[in-house]
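Summary for the funding panel

The consortium committed to producing paired sequence-structure records for every protein in the target list. Below we show the first two records in order, beginning with the earlier of the two.
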Amino acid sequence: MHISMKKGFTLLEILVVFAIVSLLAIAGFAGYMNSIKAGRDARRKADVQAIQKALELYYQDNEAFPLPAGTSIPSLPATGTSFCHPNGCNVANYLQVIPTDPGGSTPYRYASNGSSYQIYSCVENVNDGGANVKQTGYGVSCGVGRCNPCRFGLSSTNSSP
């Protein structure tokens, strides 16, 4: 007696393989998206730290911190509202350019009364517990959704974020 066996896969086997591949793809994509968020957060923290250093240098030269332009980092070449010395504006002495948020829509927030300052930024990673990160927020809006409220803050030594 001759029994013929068909070669190939059953529909159930194909569906099981498809489900496994789909789960692996979803897990890989989630990991990829988390690493993108972590990269943007690292850039934000580095930007805010660079701004903090520039503010400290500005203070050494001017004995005051620049006043904010609204809630933004001071950038206009007008005395009192930028990283400009009263005797002339050379922003490059402090920052080559004012950094912008890598997410594009969430500006860094800045507050100052001339004798102290606070700088805030978005943190997308809700599990970030690093230095100067406050997951409940600092009470300042850094945009909408995942960036509201601001969760990373730095300040002058005579104040707190």
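The next record, for a separate protein in the list, is shown here:
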Amino acid sequence: MRRYAEDTSVPVAKSRAEIDKLLRDWGCAQLQWSDDFKRGRAQLRFVWEHEGHSYLARFDVPLPDAEALKKHAIDGRNGLVSERKLQALMDARGKHEHRVLLIWLKGALNAVEAGIVSPEVVFLAHLEGSDGVTVAERAIPRLAMLTQGSADRLLADGGDDG
């Protein structure tokens, strides 16, 4: 099965601009992109205002490293890694991932608009607390507890509001 936008030629900057516009049109108050070249990831953070509250959402976009790309940089003539092909692949990193993030956000926001799902549900896992940890990062290690009882077990304080 072919992956969506697998061979896209759309530059990362264009995808980011489309994501920026989409989120601005949706009413986001702030938006930030950052690139961590050392760790091989990009990050999108945005502030979303809903019913009198401001929520910070974060999406980490992992980018393949040179080791992962080497298998696609093999020179068919000699079976060795082509440094030229590898560099071209490294330069193109993020094109596919940013297109996928864009299509996911478009789909999610269209589902919200159609009343299929609430925006809280769409972005819940990506909401970031003041400690920089997302709901997903806090909850995923505790998901097994969910099968052992109430969803309250996922909350650090046992589900109390206090």
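Regarding this second record: The chain has two domains: 12-128, 131-162. The chain has a mean pLDDT of 87.
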